[in-house]
Specification:
CATH class: Alpha Beta
CATH architecture: Alpha-Beta Barrel
Number of domains: 1
Largest sheet: 5 strands, parallel
Distance between the termini: 42 Å
Shape: globular
Number of helices: 11
Radius of gyration: 18 Å
CATH topology: TIM Barrel
Helix content: 40-55%
Oligomer: single chain
Structural class: alpha/beta
Order of helices and strands: EHHEHHEHEHEEEHHEHHEHE
Length: 288
């Protein structure tokens, strides 16, 4: 199988992406009681207030652009932070309004959420988001067509390949830049006491071993290595050190292209190298 043609003969593309859920965090964890839980609220605000500035500094030191996906509700509370993202050369993408999972709402509500998030992000940054990432990485079969209708260049919520590929979007197609749970910080560090959520708190060394090996594997196969992080998780002191260490490890290889997802999407479409993978049809045929 031929290697994906990355720019300038590079062997692997690397995208550092951040889902800045912010003040949506307590609503996600405990929608019935979040207003009473100041401690849980404080964990959500840690991301924009502490984690993101640390992430900005780290990315600036390494001269790497990143993609940030932000719910509209959080964006409204941190407009200056979004403007700084754009000024620093990072990308701002759509991540719902209140971090709503598309598969938990009907089609009309999904569209209302889409519109509201677009209006908020474009109103703050002056730029219409080109990329979408579904909260909880879950799309409905009808979601790609909705994204295409609202002009999105790409989605980054599915796991069907190691490189960009096209998915069905109604009568059209939409570029997918795939993700994977093993390349997500929540899988290693996610924790909430009540309700009990996440897999517990791992050592940064455990995550480094997994992420660095995954990077080497993507490099072997010429893939697109997308690392997904959350500022309230990776913005913590030991984990920002972990990310710094991982970037330094990747930079030891001179055939790595660090890019935003939007840049990767532009390149994949321009080269015509992305293949089409039809969406799965799991409809159970009715018995005669």
């Amino acid at each position: 199988m031929p290697m994906f043609p990355w720019p300038d003969g590079k062997r692997v593309a690397v995208a550092l992406t951040f889902d800045m859920d912010g003040e949506c965090v307590p609503m996600i964890y405990d929608p019935q009681n979040y207003q009473k839980r100041l401690s849980l609220q404080s964990e959500g605000t840690y991301g924009p207030n502490v984690g993101v500035p640390r992430i900005f500094d780290l990315l600036a030191r390494h001269e790497i652009p990143a993609s940030f996906f932000i719910p509209g509700f959080t964006a409204e509370r941190h407009p200056d932070l979004l403007r700084e993202m754009i000024a620093r050369g990072h990308e701002v993408g759509h991540h719902g309004y209140l971090h709503e999972r598309p598969d938990f709402v009907d089609d009309d509500e999904e569209e209302r959420i889409m519109i509201r998030g677009l209006e908020v992000l474009e109103g703050i940054t002056g730029q219409r988001p080109r990329g979408y990432r579904s909260p909880a990485w879950e799309l409905k079969p009808s979601s790609p067509a909705l994204l295409k209708r609202y002009g999105f260049l790409y989605d980054s919520s599915l796991m069907g390949d190691d490189e960009p590929y096209f998915i069905d979007a109604g009568r059209d197609r939409l570029l997918e830049i795939p993700i994977q749970w093993m390349n997500d910080d929540w899988a290693y560090f996610g924790f909430c006491s009540i309700p009990s959520l996440g897999n517990g708190i791992s050592s940064p060394q455990t995550a480094f071993e997994s992420w660095s090996e995954e990077f080497l594997g993507y490099r072997d196969f010429g893939g697109c290595y997308v690392l997904t992080m959350h500022p309230f998780v990776t913005g913590r002191p030991s984990r920002i050190r972990l990310l710094d260490r991982l970037i330094r490890f990747m930079k030891e290889h001179d055939d790595v292209w660090f890019a935003t997802l939007s840049q990767i999407a532009d390149h994949a479409i321009a080269t015509g190298a992305a293949i089409h993978r039809p969406n799965a049809d799991l409809t159970i045929a009715s018995r005669p």
